[in-house]
TrEMBL record:
InterPro entries: Cyt_P450 (IPR001128), Cyt_P450_E_grp-I (IPR002401), Cyt_P450_sf (IPR036396), Cytochrome_P450_fam2 (IPR050182)
Superkingdom to which the source organism belongs: Eukaryota
Naturally occurring in which organism (per UniProt): Tetranychus urticae (Two-spotted spider mite)
SUPFAM superfamilies: Cytochrome P450
Family, per entry: Belongs to the cytochrome P450 family.
GO molecular function: heme binding; iron ion binding; oxidoreductase activity, acting on paired donors, with incorporation or reduction of molecular oxygen, reduced flavin or flavoprotein as one donor, and incorporation of one atom of oxygen
Gene Ontology CC annotation, any one: cytoplasm
Alphabetized UniProt keyword annotations: Iron, Metal-binding, Monooxygenase, Oxidoreductase
Protein name (Swiss-Prot/TrEMBL): Cytochrome P450
Pfam families per UniProt: p450 (PF00067)
BP terms from Gene Ontology: organic acid metabolic process; xenobiotic metabolic process
Amino acid sequence: MVGEVDYIDVSLHKMSKRQNEKDSTFNLDTLPRNAALFHGAGSDIISNTLKWMMLYLVKYPEYQNKLRDKIKQTIGLNRQPENVNRQEMPFTMAFIYETLRFSSIVALNLLRRPTEDTKVGGYSIPKDSLVVFNFWSVQIHVIIR
């Protein structure tokens, strides 16, 4: 495989290599569903992250001013930021990381299915049952403080 590769390319490649495997997870039934889930999850995460950042910037305007000044100083107003600028803006990166750490960006994880009967924390989870991880219940203690 040469050039740019993405989830769909890799899945199609794996399907062609595993076409004789009876229980392969790489098949035309799961590919469209997974691609749609990945797209939706990625879009939702970006949107929620930006909402939380805006909330914190409104609540703490002193950070808004400091971030704006650092961006103007490092990047200016006439060009797009580049990945290398991240190293030049530790305060901005710290703000982003703290938003991700402190906020409940994603309430629930994608649906999962165990490939065999499993036990987690004393609970039995049968093979092929749908499982959802509730991140919000784990993170809510941080937000309430």
